[in-house]
């Protein structure tokens, strides 16, 4: 359950977030201008901090403050989502997916909120939550025929038990269980996956979203699948996803992003094999395999996967 904050508490948290955002902006601008990573000592010096230890403290307080501000206001997301629930139902979108989409707006509000303007955070955040939901696919999508929704619901139900030998989702087995031809299953998955695109990649977190990630104890698949937990858990998962998507946007091209999202459950919650991902994308299996290896190499070598870097900074 969300915990209401006083105006003074909001002010304190917002100031910690503003300081952290300023420190991150310094880092981003330096690395953009010089095309090389900034060391922790250089970063601290440029930010006017006495040492890497003080930098670590600022980053840690920034993460904690943003997490608390978001978690304490998740009730706003639930309240706003109620106005979209009927429309979402007819488009095959779940309430959980709407909540996570709205959470992105709440996170953005926490990053940009300035208490000096005189607004309470709840007023400012509600504007952002409504804005994200209004500009998401919830309003843009065409009406999905009832038959397609019914097939999709059946696919989601049987897919829990139809992993192939690699632990990936097998469209062959889904089709066999449902008595449908494989092409119909693939077409439905492709259509409904685009409908359920909870993490819109055109939502540009690339330059502003920062830490708030999980402690790394759960695999990403578990975070995607976990529907339980407190508002703090929901906020943390939403922030983690936003950071991860931002990392993909910064480092991969559109086709590479599509493949990674399919193979690692970021498209509709299911993990697809290289073979099935290739078919959905309209490329051959070998091309998909080589593309997958190229993606992983890019991400391993990327110097700007900031969520992971910042987490390591705060625990090192």
TrEMBL record:
It comes from the Eukaryota. One of its GO terms (cellular component) is sigma factor antagonist complex. Gene3D superfamilies: 1.20.120.1810, 1.20.140.160. It holds the Pfam family Sigma70_r4. GO terms for biological process: DNA-templated transcription initiation; regulation of DNA-templated transcription. The keyword DNA damage does not apply. One of its GO terms (molecular function) is sigma factor activity. Residues 97-110 form the RNA polymerase sigma-70 domain. Keywords: DNA-binding, Sigma factor, Transcription, Transcription regulation. Belongs to the sigma-70 factor family. This is RNA polymerase. It comes from Thalassiosira pseudonana (Marine diatom). The lineage of its organism: Eukaryota, Sar, Stramenopiles, Ochrophyta, Bacillariophyta.
């Amino acid at each position: 359950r969300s915990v209401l904050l006083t105006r003074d508490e909001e002010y304190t948290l917002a100031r910690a977030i503003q300081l952290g955002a300023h420190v991150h902006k310094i880092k981003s601008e330096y690395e953009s201008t010089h095309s090389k990573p900034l060391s922790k000592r250089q970063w601290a010096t440029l930010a006017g901090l006495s040492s890497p230890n003080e930098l670590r403290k600022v980053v840690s307080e920034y993460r904690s403050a943003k997490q608390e501000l978001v978690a304490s206001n998740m009730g706003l997301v639930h309240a706003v989502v109620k106005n979209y629930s009927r429309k979402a139902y007819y488009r095959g979108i779940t309430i959980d997916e709407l909540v996570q989409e709205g959470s992105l707006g709440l996170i953005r509000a926490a990053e940009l909120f300035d208490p000096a303007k005189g607004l309470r955070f709840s007023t400012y955040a509600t504007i952002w939550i409504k804005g994200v939901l209004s500009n998401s696919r919830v309003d843009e999508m065409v009406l999905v025929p009832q038959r397609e929704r019914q097939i999709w619901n059946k696919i989601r139900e049987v897919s829990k038990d139809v992993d192939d030998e690699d632990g990936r989702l097998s469209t062959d087995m889904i089709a066999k269980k449902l008595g449908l031809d494989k092409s119909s299953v693939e077409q439905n998955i492709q259509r409904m996956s685009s409908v359920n695109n909870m993490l819109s990649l055109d939502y540009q977190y690339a330059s502003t979203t920062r830490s708030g990630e999980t402690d790394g104890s759960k695999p990403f698949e578990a975070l995607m699948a976990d529907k339980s937990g407190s508002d703090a858990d929901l906020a943390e998962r939403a922030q983690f996803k936003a950071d991860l998507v931002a990392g993909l946007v910064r480092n991969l091209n559109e086709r590479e992003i599509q493949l990674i999202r399919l193979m690692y459950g970021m498209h509709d919650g299911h993990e697809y094999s290289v073979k099935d991902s290739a078919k959905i994308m309209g490329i051959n299996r070998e091309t998909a395999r080589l593309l997958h290896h190229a993606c992983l190499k890019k991400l391993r070598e990327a110097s700007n996967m900031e969520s992971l870097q910042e987490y390591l900074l705060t625990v090192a």
